[in-house]
Amino acid sequence: MKIISAADLQNLPNLRSLNLSDNYIMQLKSETFQYNELLQALHLNGNPMYEIQNGTFTSLQNLRVLYLQTNNIRQISNGTFNGLENLFFLRFSTLGHGGAKIGAFRNLTSLKTIDLSVNEISVLTNKSFLGLPSLRFLGLTLNRINHISSGTFRHNPYLRYIRLNFNRLTFISSALCDGPYNMYHLDLSNNNLEEFGIEALLNCAHSLEILNMRRTHIARILPANKPMMAIQQVYLGVNYLVNLTINSLSVFANASRISLYMANINDNSAAALTKLKKIQDLRLDFNHISKDFNFSANQNLLKLNLSHQNLESLSDEKFKGLVKLRTLDVTSNYVSFISKSIFTNFPSLVEVSLVANRLRAIYRDTFQGNNSCRILHLASNTIAEIHEDSFSEMSYLEEL
């Protein structure tokens, strides 16, 4: 089936959903859907389609969802989507260098989600998303975007989530917050940013709650005069943060969750963690923090991941004041010594992982004073001796 004609569908006037994905359709003619005015969902993904004639969707005023990804369409003209005033979801990929012509999305006034991932888009201009006043989610993953012009999102005031991961951005453009006044989630992971500064995001710092900058080659975070007001979650894993200053993370002081997985944090840069007074979930696995650093400044912590460090012992001083901590993960370290009664510091602790360390014995007073722990992981150690009554005070223990 290379061409779908109106005659093929004329006996299906009550059709609400049509799935034609993964066929061999190469062309849609302008009159194809003229007898299917009640259609609400249309799947055309996975076809070798190279052209959609202008006017193809004119009769589909009830269409709400349209899938067009993984086709061979190289260009969207300014009449491609005419008639789709009620469309709220559009997914389109394999768009070539011809791109979307100015006005291609005009009159898609109800569209809330558009996913243009896996295309060859390289530049965003102030007319790229003209005609999408209701847009909430914009997906631009796996493109070649290296420049975002001023005013690109000025026509999209309700935009809440922009996904720009896996592109070629080298800096954070102020254009990202030039227009949307209530940005919530920004994904910039897998770009080549090298440094982060709050100035570019000032216009949405009052609303931005989730910021993803994993694998962006960031080596420097510029100190800020004041923190981002709404920020809750920050992802900075797999970067080069060896030169953080004590004030570098102050811009994220209001965050409740920060991931610094494999971020090359060492003894010097770890001092920046002291500015995270409100942090509740901190991921620091696969870094280089020594036994001397302590978390006394992070007393709101509920979850702490210190796996794959070089820790040799767990001391009272390191965890002093963490009375709210519920989960502690020190998997795959070199811990052979645990301070006596260290777990009295954690009256709220529910789960502990000491997997793959060098513990040889569990003593009577190791877990003394903790009766809240429910799950204790001690696998892959060299434990040869467990003293009598070692777990006597852990009355709620469910898994060992």
Describe this structure in words.
There is one protein chain. The protein is an all-beta fold and 400 residues long. Among the domains are: 1-120, Alpha-Beta Horseshoe (Leucine-rich repeat, LRR (right-handed beta-alpha superhelix)); 139-289, Alpha-Beta Horseshoe (Leucine-rich repeat, LRR (right-handed beta-alpha superhelix)), CATH 3.80.10.10. The strands form seven sheets. The protein has a 16-stranded parallel beta sheet, with no helix packed on it. Strands 1-3-5 form a three-stranded parallel beta sheet. Strands 7-9 form a two-stranded parallel ribbon. It is elongated and about 85 Å long. The N and C termini lie far apart (60 Å). The protein has one helix at 6-9; strands at 3-4, 17-19, 27-28, 41-43, 51-52, 65-68, 75-76, 89-92, 99-100, 113-115, 123-124, 137-139, 147-148, 161-163, 185-187, 195-196, 210-212, 220-221, 233-235, 257-259, 281-283, 303-305, 313-314, 327-329, 337-338, 351-353, 361-362, 375-377, 385-386. The model has no long low-confidence stretch (mean pLDDT 89). It contains one helix and 29 strands.
Reported for the largest beta sheet, the result is: 16 strands, parallel
Distance between the termini: 60 Å
Beta fraction? 15-25%
* Average of the residue pLDDT scores: 89
Query: Which structural category fits the helices and strands?
Result: mainly beta
| Architecture per CATH nomenclature, i.e. the level-2 architecture of the domain at 139-289 | Alpha-Beta Horseshoe
- CATH topology title of the domain at 139-289: Leucine-rich repeat, LRR (right-handed beta-alpha superhelix)
Radius of gyration: 27 Å
Count the helices. How many? 1
CATH superfamily of the domain at 139-289: Ribonuclease Inhibitor
Indicate the low-confidence ranges by residue numbers. none
Strand order, largest beta sheet: 2-4-6-8-10-12-14-15-17-19-20-21-22-24-26-28
CATH class of the domain at 139-289: Alpha Beta
Helix amount: under 10%
SSE order: EHEEEEEEEEEEEEEEEEEEEEEEEEEEEE
CA-based shape:
elongated
What is the total tally of β strands?
29
